[in-house]
C-alpha cells in the first residue's frame, strides 16, 4: 500500500470500502412419504426428486434408501466445487436405525432440507463517507408504536366509540382513517351519516377480535397472546377471525400476518376449514400452503375422510378442481 501527504491543515480525507460476496441461495425440501415402502429398494438404486431451480441452476436430489454403495458409513466433512452436470453426496448418509429412532420419522414420513448457496462473484466496492464515519451518537429505535399504543390504552382525546357485544372501545377517528380506507369511508366519507352519534355498532366481529384489530391499527403489531381466566379461544381460531376482520377493513399487512400464522396450523383436521377461508378471502399464499400439505398422499387420504373436507367438496367445487389440477401436475 502506498501513501502520499497533501499540504495544508484541512479536514483529513476519509474513505471506506468493502469486500462483497455476491451470492444466491435457496433450499428444497424433499419429503419421503411411505418410508417403509422404500426400505426394499436395493443398494445403489435411488428415487429422484423433482428438479428445482436455485441461482439460475437446476438441481435435484437422489434418495438412496439403502445407500449408494455397500460398506459402513464414515463421518466426514468436505467442500465440493460443482461443475455443470456433476453430482456430489454421501454414499452412506445416515444409519437406518438412527432415523427410525429419531423424532424426524413421523407417520411413516420424514423430510430432508437441502440448502444451497451459490457464490457468483466476489468484488470490492466503495462505501459512502457517511457510512464510514464513526458513530459518536447512538440513536434509539423508534418508539412511535409504543406512544400510539398508550394513546389507545388511555383513550385520551378519543372521539368515537365502537360497540361489539357487551363491550365498548374508544378510539380516535383520525388514526383509524389513516390506517384503514374502509373505516375512513365510514367515519368521513359517504357512510359518515351512520355514525353521527359517535357510537359505531359492530355486529359481525367478536369483542376480543376487534380489540386485537384496534391494537394492530395503533401499533402495527399484534398483542402478545395472553389467555384470560375461562377463555378458551385458541390462537389458530383467533387468527382466522382476525384474518376475516383484516379483509373487511382492508388491512393488508394484518391479513398477511394472519395468513402466515395459519400456515403453521395446517393439519388433517384443519386443512379443509383453512382452505375454504383462503378461497373466500383471496389468500393465495395460504391456499398454496394447504395444497402443499395435501400433495402428500398420506395427508390427502386422511383429510378426504373428514366431515369438513366432505363439506368443502360439496360447497366449493372450484377448490376441488384446482386441487385436482395440482395433483395432476405432480404426477406429470
Automatic annotation (TrEMBL):
Domain of life: Eukaryota
Pfam families: BACK_BPM_SPOP, BTB, MATH_2
Entry-linked InterPro entries: BACK_BPM_SPOP (IPR056423), BPM1-6 (IPR045005), BTB/POZ_dom (IPR000210), MATH/TRAF_dom (IPR002083), SKP1/BTB/POZ_sf (IPR011333), TRAF-like (IPR008974)
Pathway as given in its UniProt record: Protein modification; protein ubiquitination
Residue ranges of domain BTB in the record: 158-226
CDD domains named among the record's database cross-references: BTB_POZ_BPM_plant (cd18280), MATH (cd00121)
Family in the record: Belongs to the Tdpoz family.
Name used for this protein in its record: BTB domain-containing protein
Native organism: Urochloa decumbens
Phylogenetic placement of the source organism: Eukaryota, Viridiplantae, Streptophyta, Embryophyta, Tracheophyta
Amino acid at each position: 500500500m502506498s501513501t502520499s501527504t497533501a499540504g495544508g491543515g484541512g479536514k483529513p480525507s476519509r474513505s471506506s470500502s468493502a469486500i462483497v460476496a455476491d451470492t444466491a441461495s435457496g433450499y428444497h425440501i424433499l419429503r419421503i412419504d411411505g418410508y417403509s415402502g422404500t426400505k426394499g429398494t436395493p443398494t445403489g438404486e435411488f428415487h429422484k426428486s423433482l428438479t428445482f431451480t436455485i441461482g439460475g441452476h437446476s438441481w435435484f436430489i437422489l434418495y438412496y434408501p439403502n445407500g449408494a454403495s455397500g460398506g459402513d458409513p464414515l463421518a466426514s466433512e468436505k467442500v465440493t466445487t460443482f461443475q455443470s452436470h456433476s453430482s456430489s453426496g454421501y454414499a452412506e448418509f445416515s444409519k437406518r436405525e438412527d432415523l427410525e429412532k429419531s423424532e424426524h420419522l413421523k407417520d411413516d414420513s420424514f423430510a430432508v432440507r437441502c440448502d444451497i448457496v451459490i457464490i457468483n462473484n466476489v468484488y470490492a466496492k466503495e462505501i459512502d463517507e457517511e457510512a464510514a464515519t464513526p458513530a459518536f451518537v447512538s440513536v434509539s429505535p423508534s418508539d412511535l408504536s409504543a406512544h400510539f399504543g398508550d394513546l389507545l390504552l388511555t383513550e385520551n382525546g378519543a372521539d368515537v366509540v365502537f360497540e361489539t357485544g357487551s363491550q365498548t372501545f374508544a378510539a380516535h377517528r383520525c388514526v383509524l382513517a389513516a390506517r384503514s380506507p374502509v373505516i375512513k369511508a365510514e367515519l368521513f366519507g359517504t357512510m359518515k351519516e351512520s355514525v353521527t352519534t359517535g357510537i359505531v355498532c359492530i355486529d359481525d366481529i367478536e369483542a376480543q377480535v376487534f380489540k386485537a384489530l384496534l391494537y394492530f391499527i395503533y401499533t402495527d403489531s399484534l398483542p402478545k397472546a395472553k389467555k384470560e381466566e375461562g377463555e378458551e379461544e385458541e390462537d389458530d381460531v383467533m387468527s382466522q377471525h382476525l384474518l376475516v376482520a383484516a379483509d373487511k377493513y382492508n388491512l393488508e399487512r394484518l391479513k398477511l400476518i394472519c395468513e402466515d400464522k395459519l400456515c403453521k396450523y395446517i393439519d388433517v383436521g384443519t386443512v379443509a376449514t383453512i382452505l375454504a377461508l383462503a378461497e373466500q378471502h383471496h389468500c393465495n399464499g395460504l391456499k398454496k400452503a394447504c395444497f402443499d400439505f395435501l400433495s402428500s398422499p398420506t395427508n390427502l387420504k386422511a383429510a378426504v375422510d373428514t366431515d369438513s373436507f366432505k363439506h368443502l367438496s360439496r360447497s366449493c367445487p372450484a377448490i376441488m378442481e384446482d386441487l385436482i389440477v395440482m395433483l395432476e401436475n405432480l404426477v406429470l
